[in-house]
Amino acid sequence: MTAATCLALASSALAAESVEVIHWWTSSGETAAVGKFKEAFTAKGFEWKDLAVGGADNQRMLLKARVGKGSSPDAAQINSDVRAYAADRSNLANLDALAAKEGWDSVLPAPVLRYAKMGGPSYVAVPVNVHRQNVMWINAAALKKIGADAPPKTWEEFFAMADKARAAGMIPLAMGEDTWVNFFFYTVAYSTMPPDSFRKAFYDADESALKSAGMLRAFEVFRKARSYVDRSASTRKWNEATQMVIQGRAFALVMGDWAKGEFVQAGKKPNEDYLCAPVPGTSNGHLFNSDAFMFFKHGKDSAAQLALAQTLMNKEAQQAFSLLKGSVPVRTDADVSKFDECSKKSYADFVSAGKSGTLACGAQHDPDASKVRRLA
Question: Is the confidence at residue 314, as pLDDT, over 80?
Fold first, then answer.
C-alpha cells in the first residue's frame, strides 16, 4: 500500500459526517448565540454546514422551496409553520428512541410537549428555548417622571399611568405594525381570560370561550389601549417601537423578551434603566413561544442528525445559547444563575406556570390556533 493510499484512507476515515442547518439567526447577537450550539455539536466530531438566511420569512420561503423540490436540509429552524411539515410525518426523522433515552418528556412542560409533538405521539420538532410574550417594558426614568415607583399590576393602573405619561409629553404605548397588533391582542386576552378559557378559545376555537366574559373584556382593554398609541405605529417595526421606550419617547411597550436584546445593545440595565414586568393581569403567568428545529429524513437514519438533536436539547448548550439570545432554556431543570434579573424572573414563572397549569403557548405556535387567528 502506497503512502498516498494510506493518506487517502486516513482522510476518508477522519471525514466528519455533516448536517446542513438552515435558520434565520443572522444578527450579531443571534450569530453569537447559535455559535454555542455549533461548538457543542462539532465537539462531538460532526460538521455543522450553516445556511443562515436573513429574515424569518425569507428562510420559510427557501425551506418550502427546498422541501418541494425534494432537497430538504437535514435540519431547519421552525416555529409557527411547524404544523405544515408535521402533516406528513413520514418525511421526518424519528427521534422517539433518542427522546426516550434522554428523558425529554420529563423536562418539558405539557404545553411545550403539545407544540413539539403537534398533538401526536412523536416529536416533530426539538424546542431549544423559550421567549416570554407577556412582558411590558417600561422606561425607568419615565416611570419616575410620572410619580410612580412600580409597574402597573392591572390595566386600570396602566391606563392611569398612560394618562400621566401623555400629559408629560410621552407616547403612552409604543406599538409596531399589524403583526404586533395581533400579538398585543393575544397578550391582552391572556390577561383577561382564565388559562383554561384562553386555551379553549385559541387552541380549540371553542364557541363558549370565544363568547366568554373574558374575551369581551379583552376587546374592551384592547380598544382602550389602542387609544394610547400614536398614528405612526402602523408603519413601525417592533425594534423601532422598542427604541422609543429606550430613548424615553414612549412610556411602555408590550413585546416578547426578544426585545431585551435592543436594551442590551443600547447599554441599558434592567431595574436601573428599564423594567421588564409581566403584562398587567398576568402576574406570574407565562405566555410563551419557542424556537425549534425540525429534522428531515434522508433515507437511512443519520447519526449526525441524532447528535444534533441531542445537542439542541442539551442542558448546558441551551443555557449557553439563551445567555446570548435573550431567551431562557426550554428545559425545566436548567441552571439560570448567570442570567440577568429579567431572565431569572421569566424562567421562574415559566417553570412555576408549567406546574400550576397557567403556562400557555402563544397562539401562533399552537397546532390548532390558525382556526381563530383572524379574531385579532
Answer: yes
**Do strands 47-52 and 171-174 pair parallel, antiparallel, or not at all (unpaired)?**
unpaired
Domain total of the chain = 2
Task: Examine the domain organization and report whether 262 and 147 are in the same domain.
Answer: yes
- Higher pLDDT among residues 163 and 299, named by residue: 163
Q: In 3D, which of 213, 132, 189 has the Cα closest to residue 372?
A: 189
CATH of residue 161:
3.40.190.10
The answer on 340 and 299 residing in a single domain is yes
- Domain C-terminal end among 240, 258, 281: 281
Q: Contact 73/304 with Cβ under 8 angstroms? A: no
pTM over 0.85: no
Q: Is 222 left (phi over 0), alpha (psi -120 to 50) or beta?
A: alpha
Span 314-333, average pLDDT: 94
User: What is the structure's pLDDT at 1?
Assistant: 52
Contact 308, 41 (CB under 8 A): yes
